[in-house]
Write a sequence for this structure.
């Protein structure tokens, strides 16, 4: 996503109905950014049982590190179909910007 001419990574947490629970905008998609978002989302929404993500290595690494350091057992599910709710919700934001 481009913001004021600069690329940014948008991380979002949604519920089963596709309602946005939390989001974080960062200049890049790295494990540190994914971990910051994970801490923010868990702080605001509570500890989830399962998290469905795409094949992002940064998100997987952040969740695995969180499980290891906090002694939690958050289950990671990789699913393109279940993650589609998040991708479909971004269409409205993409329409705001001018075409490339």
């Amino acid at each position: 996503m481009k913001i004021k001419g600069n690329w940014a990574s948008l991380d979002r947490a949604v519920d089963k109905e596709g309602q946005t629970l939390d989001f974080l905008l960062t200049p890049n998609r790295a494990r540190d950014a994914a971990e910051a978002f994970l801490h923010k989302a868990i702080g605001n929404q509570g500890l989830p049982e399962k998290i469905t993500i795409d094949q992002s290595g940064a998100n997987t690494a952040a969740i695995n590190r969180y499980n290891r350091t906090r002694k939690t057992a958050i289950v990671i599910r990789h699913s393109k179909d279940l993650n589609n709710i998040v991708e479909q919700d971004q269409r409205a934001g993409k329409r705001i910007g001018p075409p490339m």
About this structure: The domain at 2-95 is CATH 3.30.420.10 (Nucleotidyltransferase; domain 5). Strands lie at 2-3, 6-7, 9-14, 20-26, 50-53, 75-78. The CA atoms of residues 52 and 77 lie 5 Å apart. The chain has a mean pLDDT of 79.
